[in-house]
Structure formats: C-alpha cells, structure tokens
Amino acid sequence: MNDDRYAALLSRVSKPGRYTGGEYGETVKDKSNVDTRICFCFPDTYEIGMSNLGMKILMGCFNRMDGVWCEKCFAPWTDMEAVLRETGTPLFALESGDPVKDFDIVAFTMQYELCYTNVLNMLSLAGIPALARERGDGYPLIIGGGPCTYNPEPMADFFDVFSIGEGEEALPELAELYRDSRAKGESRERFLYRCATELDGFYVPSLYEVSYNSDGTLNSFAPKAEGVPDKITKRIITDLDKVFYPVASEIPYLDVIHDRIALEVSRGCIRGCRFCQAGIVYRPYREKSPGVLDSCARDCQKNSGYSEMSLSSLSISDYTRLDELIDRLLTWTEDKKISLSLPSQRIDAFYEELMKKVMSVRKSGLTFAPEAGTQRLRDVINKNITEQEILSACGKAFSGGRDSLKLYFMNGLPTETDEDIAGIAGLSQKIVDEFYAEKRPRRSVQVDISVSCFVPKPFTPFQWEPQDSLEELERKQKLLKGLIKTRKIRYSYHDARVSRIEAVFAKGDRRVSAAIAEACRRGQRFDAWDEYFDYDNWCDIFASVGLDIDFYACRRIPHDELLPWDHIDCGVTKSFLLREADRSVKGVTTPDCRTVCSGCGASCLGGERKCCP
Questions:
Q1: Are strands 446-453 and 489-493 parallel, antiparallel or unpaired?
Q2: d(CA 508, CA 563)
Q3: pLDDT at res. 355
Q4: What's 204's DSSP letter?
Q5: How confident is residue 343, by pLDDT bands cut at 50, 70 and 90?
Q6: Which residues, other chains included, contact 229 with Cβ-Cβ below 8 Å and sequence gap of 6+?
Q7: SS3 (DSSP) at 137
C-alpha cells in the first residue's frame, strides 16, 4: 500500500506490518479498469490469515476475472482498533488503503466459531451495520463462507448470503450475477432472490422463516418466496487437477503461523471418524495427480523461495500415490535443500521408508492422533486403529531416529468413562516404554500429549450427543494430570470453558445471533485468544438475551427433532449419520470408504453416481 493516509496510525501500534500491505506478489489493479471490488476479510490476525490456503485460493479466483479486484483485510489487533476508533478512521483494505465500506462485496471466511465476534467488530470498525436488515443499497453485500457455514444460523442475522461448500467456481458465479444485477439496476432484494434461485450452493437467510416451539426447539424452517429452495446443496470441485491453484501468492512481511509452501494433495477423507465434521462435509474424497502437484510445487518454490513445503490433506497417508509424489518431489527438493513435512498421519499407514524419505533434508515434527486411550472408545468413535498398531508405528519412528512424538487425544467423548481417561495415561506410558525397549545410548524420549474437549458438531454421527458439563470436563482433565507419573510425558489440554462456548455456537440456532451482537457491544473480540476470552462475561451475555447455554451444549437431541442446519445439504444423508450413531452405541466400527462403500450419499455429488474411491 503506497499511501500516506495511515502513517501516523501505524507509528502507534506494535506490529505495523500487519496493516501496510505491499507484500511481494500482491495483486494490484488499475481502478479505471475495475467495475467490481471485493474485500476478502479474515476475522483474525494477519499472521493467522496470511497462513490460510483457502483465502489465497479464493482471492486468486476473483482476481483472475477481468474487471474484478479482490483485496484483503484482517482483524486489527486491539492496539490498532483503539487507534482507529480514537481517530475515526474506518477499517481499510491492505492493497489500496480504501475503506472496506466503499467496496461492492465484503467476503468473510469463517474457519472457527470463536471468531464470530471478530466478524461483527470488523463490520463496526468499517462503519457497516451488523444486521443485514439494516443495510440498504448503499452498503456492500456481506457474504460468508468456510466450514462454520455448515451451520450458518448463529450468524444468519448478519449476512446477506452464505456460500456453502467449495468456492472456486461458485464465488466467480456470484460476482458475475452481481455485475449483471447491478447493470440492470436491480435492488438488493432482487439480487438476493436471484442469488438464491439462479445459483447453486448459496443460502440467503432473509428468504427463510423460522418458528420455535414453546420448549425452545425448532418448529419449522421454510422459504418465504416461491422458487427459493427448501435445501441448499453444497458446491464441490469434481476435478482438482483442473481447478485454480495459487502458485504465486503473496510473501508476508511478518513471521506467520505457516510460513511455507502448502501443497494441497487431496480433499475429503475416507475414514469416517464419528466426531469429525471435516471428514463428513468435505466428502467425497478426491485427489490431485502427482504430476500436477509436482508442477505446482516447482512453481510455488520458484515464486516464493521457501525452503519448506507441507503436504496438506485431512489424512496424508491415505493419498494413494504418496510414494510416487514424494519421489518426484525429492528429485529436486533435496538439491535445493527444501524440507518436506507431513500433517498428522494415520498410525496404521505409517512406515519406515516414508519417514526416511521426508527426513532426508531436515527432520520435521511427527504427530499421530489416537484420539482415545482405550480400544473400546476408539471403536465407539470409529478410529479403526489398534493399540498394537499405535505402538508399532511409534516403535518404527523411534528406530528411524526420532526421540519425540506428539499425540492428539480427546476427552468428553460419548460413552467415555474414567477407565478411558486412564487409558490415555497408560497408552502414553507404553509409548515411552516402547522407546526404551531397545537400547538407545545417550538418548531420552519426550512424548507430548495434547487433549482437547469433545465438541459435538453438525453433520457428524455425534451431532445429537450432549457435551459433558463444564465441571465434568475439568474433573477429567485433573484426573488425567494426576495419572501421569513421568516427566517424559508432557501433558497439555484445552480450556474446557472455551470448548463450551464453541459447542453453543456449533449447534446454535438463529436466536444465538442476539448473544453474539450483545457480546460485540460489550467489547468481546478475539475469543480464540486466551488473554481476551471471558467465560463469565459470555455466561452473563447469554442470560441477558434469555438463552440457556446448557440447552445448546449439554442437551441430548432426539433423533426426530428438527435441527438448525437441516436446510443445508452437505451431501451425506441423515440416514447414514443415524446408522453411524447407532453403530457407535454398539461399539461397531465401519470400514473406510476405500474398503467398502457405506452408502453415505456423498458419491452422488458432482454428477456421475458412483462410489467414493
């Protein structure tokens, strides 16, 4: 951003590089050739947003369009917010420095429920009314996307449109419809109706009527106008080899969370863990070919100069041509001293040769996710791994030169007992013992276990399950801490109070919008950050708007109850989720999609009716 308007402001904040723009590789267009301007907003800090691959992809899709310019904006940290409010300076985009309120479309990506107050705070800083019904034709169109929009209802009052599913094709269609509607002089309301009726995968909350029963449950959810669909089906990309991928992204000025090349190798997951929303809503499973990935990786490295590359996937070890891909990459990454890192891996698919390959340049962290400490509970959640497979994989890692591992677990899972909690400590100790089963001179082991609290999420077999009470979650955390008897096991856990509010937002209905609006008025923001999360304030906020936290977080939902997200079609049928819920109670596992098709319904998306690979 070559602009003197904000020089005095930037001198007063701790990290001015968050707000200057001007990164190498940023897209700047001649305004005289632009008729539609879009501001892509990430409701968290620059360091987190600049690490987000989805934002880079979607901004690139917009900027490939003639006459369209997409710029970026992040949630300002509290010091910058104070300066903006004190000086009356509206929130601005980083490329041009122009106020966000002057754009045609403002797009928010919602990756995590605890960012909701940041969305409203950014609108406030921009001078844009938070409530959609209070925005007339003079204000930008506010659209939302991302994983949280699979239950958009808690934010429904604030958005004009939600994009459901993958946006590479859908969002340019929205931009073209917007341009057409504006050329015809149509009203905001007319455009929104056309968006709901002419485009697939877009949900317009104002076109639906919601009613409730006397006990607070949903009574009905129905379109207000003819032609508006009863259900909104998510959009997917059927051929990942042909879809746009950003190989010349911006290089951030500051150290960011993931400061490296992110190479997306696949979408979806074949496994079907019953707690995992991503494993359901991103179905069907799709892969990019090694040749396309290798070409993308070469271009990304050439344009960025990065010396580290991460292979991005929900389950990298399920990529069918992983060996071939790594062999291709190593033909040039080794010479250039570029290290390869893999995300959390399936323990049952881990093997020594793969580890040796990715460690050829630099040793990177190794993470496994057993999720539960006992076989019984792993069967309940459909993890489909055994204790022997866990110990064998860890043993291979140790034999390959590792002396530290990180493992992810959860507490508060459905049917969990204290024996299952004790199983986490017991399994961790067995992994330590596995290290010392063979003599390794002058070496010691470190096993880091991170334990999160179970949050029931929409579109999972556990969506009807209650979350443990706050007291029970905290009791289990203390129980596990007392069961760990060695410093070779390092234990960390998530704040149960944060998980409780997350559960309310994850399963909330449209009435939760009132609590979020009130929270913003009271100054809540950056709720995902420990220093700003205030549980007591949130409890008071919900009480002040007449909402019960337990109703959303801790209530077991009857299977025949209308759910706030039932008007969204993620491709996986409710009948499949119900079958999986029943199998979980019985402790019966379901094979992965590659072994046998379980008839989840996702294979019917995108045209040809066939089983997921």
A1: parallel
A2: 9
A3: 63
A4: -
A5: confident
A6: 196, 197, 223
A7: coil
